[in-house]
Here is the input.
Amino acid sequence: MGRDFSLMPRRVPAQVRVVEVGPRDGLQHEPGKVPVETKVALIEELVAAGLSIIEVGAFVRPDLVPQMADTGEVLKRLRPRAGATYMVLVPNRRGLERAQESGAQAIAVFTAASEAFTQANIGMTVGESLRRFRDLVGEARQSGLFVRGYLSTCWWCPYDGPVDPDSVSRVARELVELGCHQLSLADTVGAATPGAVRKLLERLLAGIPAGQLGVHFHDTRGTALSNALASLELGITTIDASAGGLGQCPFAPGALGNLATEDLLYMLHGMGVETGVDLELVRSATQRLQLALGRALPSRYLQAGPPTAQRR
Ligand code: MG
Here is the structure.
């Protein structure tokens, strides 16, 4: 029996860009109101720690996502910083206009690989969502905004189960053709395992350069870091993470949210991968956030801290 070399560890990129999604993808799930001051302080501390792309909020309907209702105010209070890109999620033209008015440098649009999820989440077909974004992405690019396309349910759909890599590939190519500078492939419910990650990425990398693909993992079943590693081994250099592991669904006890920024940085730095981010500064930012929120956040590194060695 020959050895299966596809299972062996491979070389990983020397540098990785960590996209911080905590202030949006994380805080939007918070059950209680998070004051603007708390959000602004968190974002500024994360920028000071070296995180260069931060998703700071969303211009979505406040009745549907009340935690994001103050995104305009958050952006107004944030100081522009050289080297820091503030990104906002926008669902439509009004969202784009507000992003342009507010001084954000990047927008994110979103659709999914699964029809059932797209219907449930935004009430339209995948094709309709792509048509809606066609003009939007073009206008955003013309006004100098960086455009990211989120692709949800790349591995698992909570309604339909396993998602066919061919469906993901079709939608991914369309998002690239629309003009998205970068895609973020999301494991929305945190079901993916490394073999499936490798399989999908190999499929996508046949048509889309690695530099245009990012990955977005959730740690619901403890596989987020392993999935990030599998992505690195295929040359992916953009990985989403959430400070403190923010993004726990408050209605699913024990279910963990986004891959925690601290845990990802600890692994990357331990492997000699450069990120330009100071892990201890991220940790002090999330320690302060824990105090503000009045509860512990799930990041393992945040809770354990750096390893120590005691003399016997
Ligand atoms: Mg997420």
Summary: The chain has one domain: 12-303. Strands lie at 17-20, 53-58, 85-89, 106-112, 146-152, 156-157, 161-162, 182-186, 213-216, 238-241.
